[in-house]
Q: What sequence folds into this?
């Protein structure tokens, strides 16, 4: 089970002990990894349609929420394009959380999150999330210490409620090395087609690398609950990262053991009505 | 140009003169059509990324809005899955319009539409749209005659404003035959995996087939503007329908002649800053 291999054990977390270039659970290299991802397209699409059908049928509250976190360049966008892109877009709800607006800042930090939760039968994807409020929030001192402390428990309560409502929460931290981040930022500078992805602020954030890693470790420890556990996905190899997240989603959906909703009408009656109707 | 082949000429429209099983602009059959669609994946993805980049860079207001209309089973969902599914889901905004809620009915019919318009750099998809208000609205008499009459001009004004704001509006009516609809509804009844897609109300709507065709003809005539022209996509062959809509989107995006945004920072300075930073 990939969820167990990448799951964060209870207790203190040390990111430096986790290899960002590892490929846990996968035997093979890049080309095999890309093929394995492509091979997931059909089963993922089938499971998603069953989930969607169950949600439409009315009394099945199940849904999935994938929470993606990671340092700049860790590949949240790549996961979206290559793994989430395997799903039928009709059943996917992607929300990218940016710096909060003035209106959002006037509310509790979870207010804007609540509004973007996926509905029954769908797969929600958060590109960044409420965790930013204990990551950049902590590193940049955007809230005072007491407030930051309060948030970990608030997140756990919130996620418990979301899970109780029928949502399976899959939290992934995309774990890259500082060296790989430098290489990816350089690539954005060296390739004019990628200039638009570069922001001088990225280097300012990179200067706080160790503070961010520490903030992640604290969040991974304190919000690693049974209801909504954390996974650390080694992300120096893009192909592995994409495969691992897609496989986590596949395991999650397969675990739902989804059938097809029964007809809430009489099939034979409808057949006759349809055939009797002259158009 | 597929947009010309499928574009509706000015003047009265007669849907019965348009072959729902035709394949205008495509030489070949099903397997070639599926391959041609697959071959569009890479160019579409590249063009979409350029559009997205332009939107992010700030001063390019361009975006696309695909409006999908068609009778039940005409394949709006299939287009979404197979054609829209070729794009990176991060740059796509899908909105399925259902029967309006009480809140929506308390507003002008365009109120809920306006709120779902795509932002610069993205591709919006409307699965049904404001046209329902002159289709089911007309057929089922959901508003009085004067109000229905008012709406055609209101739609034209609205779409003109949307276009003036930088949106290219691609309107497609998926055109199926009554026989094909019957076959598809039967398939939903005969295959238990498709029961969830069937609704007894579908037969009630089918009983009004000719009224709907007429309502479409009126809408296609009166809202076929230079700013936002209509296309009729023969939809009895699923592979052609998917290829045709993807090709319309490809033509649209290719016509934007999109480059990559220039850097708004000094590349050499950033390179030095990045390399000088020890992490």
A:
């Amino acid at each position: 089970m990939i969820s167990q291999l990448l799951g964060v054990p209870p207790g203190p977390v040390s990111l430096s002990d986790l290899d960002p270039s590892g490929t846990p659970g996968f035997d093979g290299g890049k080309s095999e990894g890309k093929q394995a991802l492509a091979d997931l397209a059909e089963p993922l699409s089938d499971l998603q349609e069953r989930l969607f059908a169950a949600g439409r049928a009315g009394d099945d509250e199940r849904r999935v929420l994938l929470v993606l976190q990671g340092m700049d360049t860790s590949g949240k966008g790549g996961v979206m394009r290559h793994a989430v892109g395997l799903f039928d877009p009709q059943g996917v709800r992607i929300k990218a959380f940016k710096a909060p607006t003035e209106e959002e800042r006037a509310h509790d930090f979870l207010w804007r999150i609540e509004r973007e939760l996926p509905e029954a039968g769908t797969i929600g994807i958060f590109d960044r999330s409420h965790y930013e409020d204990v990551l950049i929030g902590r590193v940049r001192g955007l809230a005072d210490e007491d407030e930051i402390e309060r948030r970990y428990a608030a997140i756990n309560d919130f996620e418990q409620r979301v899970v109780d409502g029928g949502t399976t929460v899959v939290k992934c931290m995309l774990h890259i090395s500082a060296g790989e981040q430098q290489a990816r930022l350089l690539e954005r500078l060296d390739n004019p087609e990628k200039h638009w992805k570069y922001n001088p602020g990225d280097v300012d954030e990179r200067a706080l690398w160790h503070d961010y890693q520490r903030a992640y470790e604290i969040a991974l420890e304190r919000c690693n609950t049974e209801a909504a556990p954390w996974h650390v996905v080694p992300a120096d190899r893009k192909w592995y990262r994409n495969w691992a997240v897609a496989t986590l989603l596949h395991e999650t959906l397969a675990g739902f053991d989804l059938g097809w909703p029964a007809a809430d009408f009489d099939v034979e009656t409808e057949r006759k009505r349809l055939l009797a109707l002259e158009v």
Residues 30-57 of chain B form the longest helix (28 residues). Chain B touches chain A through 48 residues (CB under 8 Å). The first strand of chain B starts at residue 63 and ends at 70. Strands of chain B lie at 63-70, 92-96, 123-127, 167-175, 230-234.
